[in-house]
Amino acid sequence: MSRADQREENPMQTDEGPITTKRAQVREILKRRIEDELHAGDALASERQLVTELGVSRVTVRQAIADLVEEGRLERTQGKGTYVTGPRVNSRLHLMSFSREMRSRGLQPRTQVLSAVCEPADEHVAEVLEVEPGSDVVRLERLRLADDTPMAHEVGWYPCHLFPDLLDHRLNTVYDLMASRYGIVASRGEQTVRAEAADAHRARILGIARRAPLLVQERLTYADEVVVEYATSWYRGDRYRIHSTLRPRDESL
User: Fold this and answer.
1) All domains of the chain, ordered by start, with CATH?
2) For the chain, how long is the longest CA-to-CA vector?
3) Which residues of 18-47 are buried (b: 16+ CB within 10 A; e: fewer)?
4) Dihedral of CA 16/21/27/33: which sign?
5) Within its chain, how far is the Cα of 183 from the centroid?
6) CB 86 within 8 A of CB 41
7) What are phi and psi of 138, to 5 degrees?
8) Alpha-carbon span 37 to 35, nearest angstrom
9) Is this model's pTM higher than 0.85 or not?
10) Which tens digits make up the pLDDT trace of 82-118?
11) Which residues, listed in sequence order, are joined to residue 75 by a DSSP beta bridge?
């Protein structure tokens, strides 16, 4: 009998041998349930249900769930329950559209436009976009998803004199639209990253707990030397990591 057949007959058997502790046994049962029966976003049975079903103590169930949370397979949402996690993205610092980046990682991107309006630029937006205060800009608010899991909430501003009638077009992939419709190709960007706790508004949009960690990226995008976009993106800290390769300026160091 093969190892796989043995595991099917005995759920307490792994390639490393039999599982001995109750905590490890429950962890293995839940792990296989996540892999075989559940999908990203599905709720795990309550601790009380698992205690009754598996015939173990609540402490054992809680410890097993904690192990799977630490492994990134489950996440707890305060006041709601425990859920199967969605995709995690390890992003390098580069100028690439969200959709292309997600596809490059084997994920299915989707963008939901929350609002798109033409409005006068306030002093801050005007300064960073290098336009006069009160100039018309498009304010675009979007929710970014990967495999239908909310990843980021994004607000961007675009000068109307560069992109006339921008609101008449689909705004899911703005960089592609810039190039195809207006002949403007994003050539470089300047970006800062900071940490922030989710407020009630952002938590609701991203489907996370209030004060959950966020990675906030503020970006200026240029076409040659012209600023074409000012955007702020709030990425879920449990879904997004930033990877960069660091080298000394002086190679002799």
Assistant:
1) 3-84 (1.10.10.10), 89-243 (3.40.1410.10)
2) 76
3) ebeebbbbbbbbbbeebeeebeeeeebbeb
4) positive
5) 30
6) yes
7) -95, 125
8) 6
9) no
10) 887 766 554 444 455 666 666 666 777 889 999 999 9
11) 83
